[in-house]
Design goal:
Number of helices: 17
Structural class: alpha+beta
Strand order of the largest sheet: 12-16-11-15-13-14
Radius of gyration: 24 Å
Shape: globular
Helix content: 25-40%
Number of strands: 20
Distance between the termini: 37 Å
Length: 595
């Protein structure tokens, strides 16, 4: 997917009234949080013990088994509490508390990018290399209503993503994998099949068995099942577009209340059985989420001790970074409360191979040779905010190739220009989302290109529609003469195939919502992709095969990776069991507790 922080509709407002009197309590909690946050540097701070820099990356920050208390969470935008309608990793982290899926991300320190069984008894079985997948549900799992969770509830939740006229904004991977192009399924709200058989490619022969028949082999399919959009929904509780106001919980907490003043409050779900859940510890009695805060406001709340965890995934802001050497009380420094991680968001240049002169590989090679990644890194805020990269493989995805760190080579760039018949350079357009940081990076790249005669006009385009209808429309890219696209790219889940295939598989090029921004269509690379998928049964062989894909794609010059975002997470003073959740770039709410 493209930069996920740019996606998602405004979240629906609503309340849930079954917990009387909670609003007054939350107003008190939030009021204290805001007043402490506004106090800023003058507020007293309390030390966090049992920690140090990067303690939560591969270990546990301030481990504790103590239950009780209120976990106070802050975040920015919340697009929707409907699991089929959210596309924000911070909200997906929150959903770990009230939605369960067949499989889920592990909560084990240092292994949070790996999958473990959740509602299912295992990670799924496939007899044919990834086209057919079968899962068996655990016994004893229930919704908050007390009703058992069945295979048909899982199927119905997945079917909701097909209702593109009602359920919008969330991932559509299941549509791509399970729909029949010759007979598209319109979702459960338009399903007129006698007996409502529903989506034909998903079979539920009994209450505990569910089988998926995909259009083509997909070794990463269990990761698709780990997305909240694959969580169960009881059909008789589905309110369509309004479901996010009152989602039915399958996890240890229920959404008790929500509004713009009190935020979101989660209370314990008495129907949750910890014996059926290997992922969540559910230590706090209550979780209070304050939404809509700016990055500075979130940092202030963490520094003041009025918030325990920020799940936005963006990390601390520059003013807070400047304070990391300060004393936080006792012998503890603020830096001791920091966990630093890359977030798998790669900023790169895409050179459309069907826009002259970048249809010539030598012209693309000229761009790759002259790019100064160190200068780009400085524009992005220096090493604290970005790490240089020259590979189409994020650091958080296991098995990355050994990465060189090339410096600019103007002589090689000029030689490449001569080879492609453009010794004096040429004019082109560099498209970028209209946001300050992106435009600044584009201007830096344009200045670098000008040194070898490539005159790139920086053209900021509307950020909300940039990926969907601007650079996602190949015809518009060609018509506007866009020769370079500055994009950010991440994946819905941390596997090399999820990151690479949408970018480099020539069969993925589409006319609407295209994500192969370079229109790279190389049959040899497509064959390497097929070989990597076939090797899925052997993890090491599969990683080696995907490395061949990444190396071959980078060699085409169609993509020029620049930098990967780096995030510094600040643990609240009361946070216990702080485990960094790699896929969501935050502390895992599934295990978090408070002092």
């Amino acid at each position: 997917m493209d930069s996920t922080l740019e996606r998602g509709p405004a979240w629906a407002r609503g309340t849930r009234g079954r917990v009387a009197g909670i609003a007054a309590v939350v107003l008190l909690v939030v009021g204290v949080a805001v007043s402490c946050a506004n106090a800023g540097e003058d507020s007293p701070t309390l030390p966090v013990f049992g920690g140090g820099p990067d303690t939560g990356v591969t270990g546990v920050r301030a481990p504790s088994e103590a239950a009780g208390g209120t976990l106070r969470v802050v975040t920015g935008e919340v697009d929707n509490l409907d699991p089929q309608r959210s596309y924000l990793p911070g909200v997906w982290n929150l959903m770990r508390l009230y939605t369960r899926t067949l499989v889920s991300y592990s909560s084990e320190p240092g292994h949070t990018g790996e999958l473990v069984p959740d509602l299912a008894t295992d990670l799924g079985t496939t007899p044919d290399g990834g086209t057919t997948w079968t899962f068996t549900l655990r016994e004893g799992v229930r919704f908050e209503t007390g009703a058992p969770i069945t295979s048909r509830d899982v199927k119905y939740g997945i079917e909701r993503s097909f209702a593109s006229d009602v359920v919008v904004g969330g991932p559509t991977r299941v549509v791509e994998l399970l729909d029949d192009p010759g007979n598209p399924y319109a979702g459960p709200y338009q399903d007129e099949t006698p007996g409502r058989l529903g989506l034909a490619s998903v079979e539920t022969p009994d209450d505990r068995t569910i089988t998926f028949r995909l259009r083509s082999p997909q070794p990463d399919f269990p990761y698709v099942m780990a997305l909240p959009s694959s969580s169960p929904v009881p059909a008789d509780s589905d309110t369509g577009a309004e479901y996010g106001r009152d989602p039915v919980s399958s996890g240890p907490y229920v959404v008790a209340t929500r509004d713009d003043v009190t935020g979101i409050v989660l209370e314990r779900n008495p129907q949750w059985d910890p014996a059926t859940d290997q992922v969540r510890t559910a230590l706090p009695d209550r979780v209070v989420v304050r939404t809509g805060l700016t990055g500075v406001e979130r940092d202030q709340a963490l520094l003041a001790g009025s918030a325990d965890v920020d799940v936005s995934g963006t990390g601390i802001q520059a003013p807070t970074t400047a304070r990391l050497g300060e004393d936080a009380g006792g012998d503890v420094r603020l830096v001791d409360r920091i966990d630093e991680v890359t977030n798998n968001v790669v900023r790169l240049l895409a050179l459309p191979t069907d826009v002259a002169p970048f249809d010539d590989p030598a012209c693309r090679a000229a761009v790759a040779a002259v790019v100064d990644r160190a200068a780009v890194q400085e524009v992005l805020g220096g090493p604290a905010e970005a790490v240089r990269t020259s590979q189409l493989w994020p650091r958080g995805v296991e098995g990355a190739p050994e990465e060189p760190d090339p410096t600019p080579d103007p002589a090689a760039a000029e030689e490449a220009l001569a080879t492609c018949g453009q010794p004096e350079g040429f004019d082109t357009v560099l498209a970028v989302p209209d946001a300050p940081t992106g435009v600044a990076v584009a201007e830096e790249v344009a200045e670098q290109l000008s040194r070898i005669g490539i005159r790139a006009q920086v053209r900021p385009l509307d950020a909300p529609s940039f990926y969907a209808t601007e650079v996602g429309n190949p015809d518009r890219v060609r018509d506007n003469g866009i020769g370079i696209v500055l994009a950010t790219w991440t994946a819905d889940f941390p596997t090399p195939g999820s990151f690479l295939v949408p970018l480099v598989d020539g069969r993925s090029v589409s006319t609407v919502g295209n994500t192969n921004f370079a229109r790279l269509a190389d049959p040899a690379i497509d064959r390497l992709i097929d070989a990597a998928r076939t090797a899925a049964g052997d993890p090491e062989a599969a990683r080696a095969a995907w490395r061949k894909v990444a190396t071959a794609a980078t060699a085409t010059g169609a993509y020029v990776p620049l930098a990967e975002s780096r995030v510094q997470l600040l643990a609240g003073q009361r946070l216990r069991n702080g485990v960094v959740m790699g896929p969501y770039t935050s502390y895992d709410l599934a295990t978090a507790g408070v002092r």
